[in-house]
Amino acid sequence: MFKNLREDINSVFERDPAARNVMEIIFCYPGLHALWFYRIAHWFWIHEFFFFGRFTSHIGRFLTGVEIHPGAKIGRKFFIDHGMGVVIGETAEIGDNVTLYHGVTLGGVTWDKVKRHPTLEDNVVIGSGAKVLGPFTVGKGAKIGSNSVVVKAVPENATVVGIPGRMVMEEKHKEARPDLQHGQLPDPEAKAIACLFDQIRELERKYDALAAEHADLKSRVDGK
Fold first, then answer.
1. What CATH class does 2-181 carry?
2. Tell me: the pLDDT tens digits for 185-198?
């Protein structure tokens, strides 16, 4: 248990440059408190003390502003930055080294008692206010921009932004980085603009080629 506590605290140090010391992290990080409440609630849940699991989760929600269903499955080194407004549904599954910012929802789109919440693989980063809705998988190392609404699967190492979420960058062969910090997060808008400029340059090249071909044909016709 103490090993897990140390690991949780070290995760905050790794991913939040504002963290100064252990005492500050233990007493002033609601995302960390929410994770510890979840661990207790999850223990009750898997041992079929369902009421105590939900009640513990409810207390954690009241004190931290973060709602994590005790039935969710969460891996190691999970970090909720700033906390407040995060909602994680019952059938959500979260891998290792995952980072969520405030206002993130891992929700469902059906009332049926089936797998209805997303699965986040290792090293996923989800920006503030994003909604990930449905029983699909967000691949390893993927990043979802702030306030995006994602309703379909995301490939590994892809960057998704917008409503509905659209992929603006995919790096299939890039190695996942578990130690991403604030300053290392990508700029999805800049990437999208760069892609647009690339497309414009390609269209200009094709236009110039067609114009040259048209001029050549016209000269041949006029020569006859």
1. mainly beta
2. 555 566 667 677 77
